[in-house]
Amino acid sequence: MERLEQNVIHDICTNQVVVTLDACVKELVENSLDAGAKRIEIRLRESGAELLEVVDDGKGVDSEDHAMLATRHATSKISKYEDLSSSLDTFGFRGEALAGICAMGDLTICTKTAKDTSASLLVYDHYGKLTSALPAAREVGTTVSIRDLFRRLAVRHREFTRNAKSQVSATLRLVQAYAIANPMVKFQVVAEKTKGHGAGRATLLATSGLSNGWIPAAAAVLGDATVADVKPLEIRSAGTGWTISGAISMPQGGRRTRDMQLFFVNRRPINAPKRITKLINDTFHQYNSRLYPVIILSFTADQTLVDVNVTPDKRTVFLHNEEKLLADIQESITELWAPADRAPSATLASFGVVRGGGTGSGPSKASKSKTSLGSSSAVDLDALCAGGPGAAKSMVPLPPSEALTGDSGVIDDQDTPEQDDDPLGAGDRKRPELETPEKTPAVLAGLPQSHQLSATPGQTPSPLDALGFGAENPAKRQKQGPGTGPGPGPGLDP
């Protein structure tokens, strides 16, 4: 037996940190939020394969930290293990993200703090070593640029390029979740295509950073139709230290799938907690057995009550006092939903909850994504309208006519109540009503009248259908007969 060389250990470990485009974007967006950014822009050139760039207006990186910025396990966010459960107030804490990104592509960082006279342009090698530092010009903040992502790993690069459209879709859904959880931050996602047919630039997502409250924040990202029947929900769990805020559907509303069930812990997007999700869905089905509620719930507590260091992506968590949380949640949603003359037939015992039970919980089971890397939900970046370089064009063709009648999300014909769903993944065929043309999400701001999505009488197109999330299953389209296929791609003027 031999001990592995350090460079071998480094490659093995860092190759596990960033495995997809959205994983890379997640790490960079969280770094920007930790830096106090109020504006975050994500730029994807050729689906991120040629260039991925995240620009923020945060506080920047101090010059004394430049050399260690991309080395493994170097972080300014904690100094000892106990900080994870006592003083952690940041998204990141392991010090592995930039080291992992260095191993996957060519990393350069341009950063400036308020005390710097000029910005610094930093270049790192694949082991995270600083190889060049030059003066540059930019405002206070940080720009992280990664070129040739995954090119060093042949198999991973081949998979990335082959499924680039789906990876862009997953990245967009990820940013949507962070935009909802951080409504006072201005998010923008821009895609550029410089090669081949239809070169151009499109804004896939843009928020104002001015939303106040969970419902306006969700409406700005997901569209007014998605939150048409939701009501605010506020729960202060006595004796547990937890506060729950957000919004949830009333029984007259809902969706055919669980794609719009979003959960956050201290503003961090997490996988849906299995027991909490089951409790809410089963209680809702006592009033509306056909649909699932829209759920946007944020759990807030002292860091001592939550453990996020469970999985590498930090999306599976332990919640302390979950039994009491379940009891308080059922009491609140029953009061919200039940008519005065009717009480729900199910009790907490139906969901395995015993009042006064244990004070801990197991990890929330990760939701099974219904959108594979090759699914039809992909944003079609090859469908840019013809135009000169730099022209603002839509990268997404019109969805099938049936998709125009649905909420935002991918329609999955295989969805059943038994399946777990990925937030912001699959979609719904429900036909929402938009009250006025002005009630469209920020992502479609500036869409010319000539390029508005059309629909037959009584049908209202979902705003996010223009991004390809309404794409129908090909087999489903064949059943529909002729005349229901996708139309030409509309132009999108940022």
From TrEMBL:
Keywords of this entry: DNA damage
Q: Where is this region: Disordered?
A: 391-494
GO molecular function terms attached to this record: ATP binding; ATP hydrolysis activity; ATP-dependent DNA damage sensor activity; mismatched DNA binding
Q: Where is the composition biased (Pro residues)?
A: 485-494
- Feature: compositional bias, Basic and acidic residues: 427-438
Q: Any one cellular component term from GO for this entry?
A: MutLalpha complex
> What CDD domains would the database entry show?
HATPase_MutL-MLH-PMS-like, MutL_Trans_hPMS_2_like
Q: Which InterPro entries match?
A: DNA_mismatch_repair_CS, DNA_mismatch_S5_2-like, HATPase_C_sf, MutL/Mlh/PMS, MutL/Mlh/Pms-like, Ribosomal_Su5_D2-typ_SF, Ribsml_uS5_D2-typ_fold_subgr
Q: Which SMART domains match?
A: DNA_mis_repair
- Acidic residues bias spans: 410-423
Sequence ranges assigned to domain DNA mismatch repair protein S5 in this UniProt record: 218-338
GO BP, one example? mismatch repair
- Reading the lineage from the top rank, the first entry is Eukaryota
Composition bias, Polar residues: 449-462
UniProt lists the family membership as follows: Belongs to the DNA mismatch repair MutL/HexB family.
The protein's name in its UniProt record: PMS1-like protein
State the organism of origin.
Crypthecodinium cohnii
